[in-house]
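pipeline stage [seq->struct] | target=Protein croquemort | organism=Cryptolaemus montrouzieri | residues=492
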Amino acid sequence: MGCCSQKTQKVIVFCTSIFLIIIGLILIFSWQDISSYITRTELSLKNENTQQFQFWKEAPIPIYLEIHLFNWTNAADFKEGKPWTTKPEFTEFGPYIFREIHTRANIEFNDNNTVSFNTIRTWHFVPEKTRGSLDDNVTTLNPIAMTVGNLMKHKSILLRRGVNTLFKEKKVPFIVTKTVREFLFDGYNDTFLDLLHKLDLKDIKIPFDKFGWFYSRNGSVFYDGKFTINTGADDLSKLGIITRWNQSPRSHTYAGYCGLINGTTGEVWYPLKKSKSISIFLPDTCSSLTLEMNGSYSAFGLEGNIYAQTNRLFDNGTKYLDMDCFSPGVHLPTGVRNISECKFGAPAFMSMPHFYMADPSYRKAVKGMYPDPSRHSFYLALEPNTGLPLKIDGNLQVNLYLENISGIDMFQHVPRIMMPAVWFRQQASITGYLALLGKLLIVLPKAGTLAGYVLLGIGSLLLLIGLFITLRNGSKDAKEEPTTIEYYKNLG
């Protein structure tokens, strides 16, 4: 009975050791392929079952939008049609803070490893985080009048005089004062805008019935347009890269290099490894923003690279000749991007807040600009192995370009000046749960291989122990077994 028990134990030891050795060898030689498959699958947008898809379909991290409006404090000193004798002065109102939620709609998987979709962005006011009230009054240039003037500035003098007559008949103001809620999401009615829609003029097409910086955007399926991006199913290095926007591989707002749709939408990233720069396509600018690696960032034990703006970001050919196509129609000092064609003809220019990193002439032309790198930068921190966003701090400003337009009295004596209107700050940070998933994906390749070596070691040790015990017991049995002569002597 004891003998059988010992034999059973030996069999168990040998079988266990061989099993562990086999599993260990499989892990050592195959785990890299297994882990690569797991990583490639879970990080891709291959189908609705991947982890990346679930996070992408509705952003799992809290996103906040800060909105700062510039109030023209000495607007009363500037009379319509009169020469300017002093500088316009601005006071920053806000921030007015909103919780921002992104969800995908009209998702279509294509045969070429791409997915098409629309993005719905919804904003919810957060009064407890806000400084001020949505009922605050803000004074600024009349955006409707500015848009009409900009659309007319290159038309015939007869058309401009006709518009001038309409301005006077309808008493269109040069300066408007509205509440924050009207300037943002609610929009406000404008009698002149109503008239333009009724007249349906060929040269003045403004496709909204009210004005508001975010009017008609909250909850809209179509405002940002339709995107097609790579799923990364065939090649993870293509994950998230845009192939088409509104069915086109380029933006028609700009010519040449500037019209290329580069990069991602900013939410899903490919493994960056040692990429020196990244690009984000923003529908609000109808163009891509390129950020360059500049430092490191750490969150929940994950290490990432910071990609931030440089003086190239909003250059318009002054410092970098290839950026000249970002300034169609008007050539200005560096630091602003002409987005007029993207904003239905409004004389809108994008810059960093308070003209940070822009030519000093913009700040000197007005009062109240205080650029601060700690508050007015644009950067992303991304984990290089997975492309996981660790921190987003995007800051951009919209300005209205005021210039002399002959034939329209309202703009007859104004100087060329960039008038700040509003700046936005979008912030988001990785959560502890997402950081844990990121760590698991990072350590997965090494963990499996290490486990293989551990199992191989344990299995080999068990095998040696089993062989040692077997050999020792065999030697002991041989010594204890009596010889034939001794056997017969014992019988006698």
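stage status: PASS
auto-comment: The mean pLDDT is 86. The chain has two domains: 2-41+445-491, 61-430.
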